[in-house]
Design brief:
Protein name: Stage 0 sporulation protein A homolog
Pfam families: Response_reg, Trans_reg_C
InterPro entries: CheY-like_superfamily, OmpR/PhoB-type_DNA-bd, Sig_transdc_resp-reg_C-effctor, Sig_transdc_resp-reg_receiver, WalR-like, WH-like_DNA-bd_sf
Keywords: DNA-binding, Phosphoprotein, Transcription, Transcription regulation
Helix content: 40-55%
Number of helices: 8
Number of strands: 11
Radius of gyration: 20 Å
Organism: Lachnospira intestinalis
Shape: elongated
């Protein structure tokens, strides 16, 4: 079930949207902490965001620009403004689609479905994202700084990283990592696994990203 986060300060509209989405088979939640909106969106890890332009503390366009420095989550701008300039500005900040109020519920659902399909297609093409970086496993490449720079990983490093990323927010044991490497015909011993984890940490540290992989003593590792 796809998770959709509603970022809308009008409670009545939020409740209506939530009901519409849940009746259409989605898991829907409503953002309530607008002061820390960007952090809350990342914490919720939605598959798609419905973002209103007129929200407290930071307007939707500024929030979108901030989000695009951290994540590539699909975003549809939902607004009462019927202005071509607003649409152009929103798209330039990274919106994936734009719909004005009062919207046709059927049209909104069709746009959501189409956008989620595009996102799934992108994922199927082996491109995923972490902390605003684009991960290209088949190329052994991680792009950062809005794609201007690249970091190359060895096959073993990428295999370990992708295993941790797939199981993000939970501890992955050393045995699980070793099994994943063996499944990819990479036969490392226990010491070699430790060396590869250390190299991964060093690579991220070199580009200014600290504490990517935490060690949980006696349990394994977790990607944070």
């Amino acid at each position: 079930m796809k998770k959709i986060l509603i970022v809308e300060d009008d409670k009545d509209i939020s409740i209506e949207l939530k009901a519409l989405l849940e009746n259409s088979g989605y898991e829907a939640s409503i953002l309530t902490d607008f002061k820390n909106a960007s952090d809350e969106i990342l914490r919720n890890e939605p598959d798609l965001v419905l973002l209103d332009i007129n929200i407290p503390y930071m307007n939707g366009e500024m929030l979108l620009r901030d989000l695009r420095q951290k994540t590539d989550v699909p975003v549809i701008m939902v607004t009462s403004r019927d202005s071509e300039a607003d649409e152009v500005l929103s798209m330039s900040y990274g919106a994936d689609d734009y719909i004005t109020k009062p919207y046709n519920p059927t049209i909104l659902l069709l746009r959501i479905n189409a956008l989620l399909k595009r996102a799934a297609s992108s994922s199927a093409n082996n491109s995923t994202f972490y902390r605003g970086m684009e991960i290209l496993p088949q190329k052994g490449v991680i792009k950062y700084n809005d794609g201007r720079d690249e970091m190359l990983l060895t096959k073993n490093e990428m295999t370990i990283f992708m295993c941790l990323l797939a199981k993000k927010d939970r501890i992955v044991s050393r045995d699980e990592l070793m099994t994943e490497l063996w499944n990819n015909e990479e036969y490392l011993n226990d010491n070699a696994l430790t060396v590869n984890i250390s190299r991964l940490r060093a690579r991220f540290k070199d580009i200014g990203i600290e504490d990517v992989i935490e060690t949980r003593k006696g349990q394994g590792y977790i990607l944070v």
